[in-house]
Amino acid sequence: MSDGIWGYQPTAGHTAGTDLIGYKVEATDGTIGKVDKHSEEVGSAHLVVDTGVWIFGKHVMLPAGTVRTVDSAERKIHVGLTKEQIKNSPEFDKDRHVGDREYHDKLGGYYGGHRPL
Asked: Hey, which of 18, 37, 48, 52 has its CA 20 to 30 A from 6?
């Protein structure tokens, strides 16, 4: 079920309860990293992606609404965003921003303006 940018789209193929940790995350123009954490919380579903060396070992938070498809067989998640859109997103600190309503609103506004491709 979809809850705007913070819910999985019905067509994404996400099954509630699936452990997505370790899945590769693919932008429209290449791999961005692997899922480090994820949440299925209603109104706040998201992925935390470890970008590894791509953006100097940082993590990014992606709202579930940016997910186009979840491929359980391949253990891949495809998001409808470019690497540049993800790289330019509001800076994420996994120790401060998980559960931070102000950051959540800022990120939702950013990705809400970048409708998934």
From this structure: 52
